[in-house]
């Protein structure tokens, strides 16, 4: 390409980048309109207000009506200001001020979002815990652009810190634009079936957003006349992608992959399946996985899609789907307009209705929920029911005193099982146990039912543990959930166990549901350090930070990597416990033998056991294959191909060859009346494949020159039959060592059809030998025993340059 053409391309590239940047900025500007400015005062709510002139309706940015903004009755971490945007909008930024002309402003806050005014979700900036910096005075505007826009109807701001010389004071604005979508709601018994037109493989893509009310159920299932199918299914809050040939593939099939978790949190999640040549890209929210397509799954060719169910199971989806787009076609829009290609089964609605489950989050040792017990406990018995989810194996769920303080009840987790202890003076402790593996992050239900001489503890509606006490195990006073108050003088609550960290919901006492919103409003009970109307559980193992197939486990606040049997160590299994080469083992004083070699250190290639020959000045790494002995080739009219399977895999071989100073491999070819060419200038009858990847066709043999298409006797002109480049009467041994790294290792021998009476041949391909480690020059090491700094031994010549 000449200089002028290069300048042209450079100019065009710069113009394209400028246009792309302009369109991106224009898109950002188009979605930056004020969303709060035109709202009525009835669109605002708050936890409390200092006075009527400090109410939430005065909290618009730059407004001075009333007292110039919102201030709560008390300035503490339980206050909040909420805005109803009227409908779901795309929010891209938020701005705050303090209360006009005052010393009241917040210096840090948390941002929450919700579709229905319940089940709030905290916004988290990438790389942070989701705390936004606030104001430093009453009137300056501080604006934050959200790294990822949020689609929501309700916005809630929770002040965390404020001016110590004043109170919480707030005016705010959110920025964004309208959000249009097509939504369908399925009740767990309904479904949709679409008849599709098969399209070209290169255009295959599927996008959908979903909100699930249950942790399991089939989102969609596509199939075609070729008996191939693709299924997206929720299984215990994780998304499964299943590729089937027929209907016999079990869930443990290698063509099943899972991604993400906690997808049953009743929040929207985005899924994308995109076809890319020989693989699929599966995306859930911000996580993407590459899914290799099996050979039989060459193209989809699907002509049916079942949404909400498949025809072979009862695992129906219960929840909402939004903007289901298949190859550019909006399928929800088709269903909404009663397109003849759509069959509707059951109760299908085109809005997202959802039950209200108010959850509470116990975040730490000071988290506590106190509920009143009955002043007159029922004489025939009582019950306590709840649901919880946690990652912790230990923790107190509930404790209370028996009537007249004649004993104490503890309901707690121990070793991920549920335990009940009842202590009463002068009696042996009563103990029950139910459930197992309850620290898996899933919702689990608990039923504690007490009657006359009957006590039952049930977990997840299964058969539980029972006892027959002679007394009622009913609350005689207040009920303490999660722990006990920190006051040492409190004799009403004693916690003998660890505090609970996790979420609870659907609490009922004596068959009366507990209204946790009233608790939040301080209208009943009491609480400390709770997040009410949200479950703040986080999966720290999805995606896993454990490398090299280390197994990830977690508690509420941290995660742990088990590096056993991985060959790696460290907090995330990052550091290899093996050396990168035989040279490195020799420098540490080892002798010849088998060692595990990790050719890329902490990289993705697994360590492998190889033989290190240290008997010579040079240290050789020996990589064997499945046939290193002299092997006779038996005549076959069809010819054939002989493959060599090496002890190391492809990545290990390539990396070993690349980082070694020299590699070599002996190839011996014995022949009698065995031509390599059908004519001196004709096509090859026998050749070998060598090199990285699939390898390259090689026409020279051990004793021949590269590219000569001859063996050594032909080049030396001592074959009996030079016309056929072979030895016709005696065995010719063509032996040599291949040293060209680009042609190593030898992958296979290809044997063509030879129709010469009496022809005989044999081959021997030795192990691959490599020596010298380029990486060893990058580090010296310090010997703690001798206090010497050791440098690698130099093999080669020094240049004056």
TrEMBL record:
Listed CDD domains: EGF_CA, FA58C, LamG
Sequence ranges assigned to domain F5/8 type C in this UniProt record: 31-177
Keyword Disulfide bond in annotation: yes
Residue ranges annotated for the Fibrinogen C-terminal domain, each copy included: 573-625
Signal peptide positions on this chain: 1-28
Domain EGF-like positions: 537-574
Subcellular locations according to the entry: Membrane
Membrane topology: Single-pass type I membrane protein
Cellular component GO terms, alphabetical: membrane
Domain Laminin G: 181-352, 358-535
Entry coiled-coil feature ranges: none
Source taxon at top rank: Eukaryota
PROSITE patterns: EGF_3, FA58C_1, FA58C_3, FIBRINOGEN_C_2, LAM_G_DOMAIN
Keywords: Disulfide bond, EGF-like domain, Membrane, Repeat, Signal, Transmembrane, Transmembrane helix
Coarse class of the protein's main subcellular location: membrane
Similarity field: Belongs to the neurexin family.
PANTHER family in alphabetical order: CONTACTIN-ASSOCIATED PROTEIN-LIKE 4 (PTHR15036:SF40), PIKACHURIN-LIKE PROTEIN (PTHR15036)
Name of the protein: Contactin associated protein-like 3
Organism: Nothobranchius furzeri (Turquoise killifish)
Lineage: Eukaryota, Metazoa, Chordata, Craniata, Vertebrata
